[in-house]
Design a protein that fits this description.
Elements lengths: L7 H37 L6 H9 L3 H11 L7 H18 L9 H7 L2 H4 L5 E7 L5 E9 L9 H10 L4 E7 L9 H17 L3 E7 L4 E3 L7
Parallel strand pairs: 3-4
Antiparallel strand pairs: 1-2, 1-3, 4-5
Length: 226
């Protein structure tokens, strides 16, 4: 009996190489065309691209393929991998739209992080009120006064007025020390006690009083004073 051996590995490798050589020009063309889309995207922004061009950039597919995907996904009964990819993109876009951009103020460091350097390094004292919602997200920031901090200058009425207007669940008081030393003074402590009592009466608690400066910050809450 004559046995004939077939070099499957060699044939498979040849087939694979043949397939790669056949696909490479198309892949290269797609990459080249998508580079042009990327250049236009960078120069003119996403608004300059059509829906199909945006999908082509995100999924690295030819524009013609992307156009078919955009058209097919508009059909309610659309199925298959292309429809699945488009539904994934739609879900991602929806989640991005629903992302809440409001920062969470859950520490003195978070407070100091949103106070601009122009306030931290100012030559005059700035007194600010941060209004927070129930999730400790910043919903409003207002400068109440500029000048020397004193009980007469910083009145609870001015401090809690923004909180009432914006229906805040809590407030954070912030002021800077032009000296560069954030250590609280006796006046700082007096003002903090007055604001704490006012907040308790109004049902809008003073969550913290943070003193900021060019060199750092001090939290009444984190030091157990509030």
């Amino acid at each position: 009996m004559k046995i004939t051996y077939v070099n499957v590995v060699a044939d498979s490798g040849a087939a694979t190489a043949s397939q790669e050589s056949h696909e490479s020009p198309q892949i290269g063309t797609t990459r080249t065309r998508n580079k042009g889309l990327l250049s236009r995207l960078q120069a003119r922004g996403p608004e300059a691209l059509t829906d199909a061009e945006l999908v082509a950039v995100m999924l690295a597919v030819p524009v013609e393929k992307a156009a078919d995907m955009v058209r097919d996904v508009s059909v309610p009964a659309a199925t298959g991998r292309d429809a699945a990819r488009m539904s994934a993109l739609n879900e991602y876009a929806k989640r991005m739209r629903n992302t809440d951009p409001r920062p969470v103020i859950d520490s003195a460091r978070a407070v100091a992080g949103i106070i601009p350097a122009s306030v931290r390094e100012a030559k005059k004292e700035h007194f600010l009120i941060l209004c927070l919602n129930a999730r400790r997200q910043l919903i409003h920031l207002e400068t109440v006064s500029i000048g020397t901090l004193s009980a007469s200058l910083v009145h609870p009425r001015e401090c809690f007025s923004p909180a009432i207007i914006h229906a805040a669940a809590a407030v954070v008081a912030v002021h800077n020390h032009p000296s560069g030393d954030p250590t609280p003074s006796s006046e700082d402590r007096d003002v903090t006690r007055r604001l704490q009592r006012a907040g308790e009466l109004l049902g809008v608690p003073l969550a913290d009083h943070v003193v900021v400066s060019a060199s750092g910050f001090f939290s009444f809450r984190e030091h157990g004073i509030l």
